[in-house]
Amino acid sequence: MAAPRFALAALVVMLAVITLSEGMRGSGPKKCCSSFSKKWVHKDSVVNYIRTSQRCPKRAVILRTVEEKTLCVNPTAPWVKQLMSYLDAKSARVAETSNL
């Protein structure tokens, strides 16, 4: 009689562990990029950027333009690094003036 109870308890514990571990993983990243845009984008055309999740297979930066379009770009490209620095400095200036 003890063996069936032990087997049932072990099964319940195993199912609980699987359920908890799957729940902790989440649903995955919201946006990943499979390829990079080859075209250069002028800094005045970009509103902001986000970095893709570390769980994406390819590291990327997603640019949002004034026209509400999104572009996946290579974060190691020199022009992308300069653009991100420009946008970071621009948002820092806006934050400084809004706190006055």
UniProtKB/TrEMBL annotation:
GO molecular function, one term: chemokine activity
GO cellular component: extracellular space
Main location: secreted
GO annotation, biological process: immune response
Subcellular localization: Secreted
UniProt keyword list: Cytokine, Secreted, Signal
Domain of life of the organism encoding this protein: Eukaryota
Chemokine interleukin-8-like domain segment(s): 29-87
Signal peptide boundaries: 1-23
Protein name: Chemokine interleukin-8-like domain-containing protein
Protein's organism: Mola mola (Ocean sunfish)
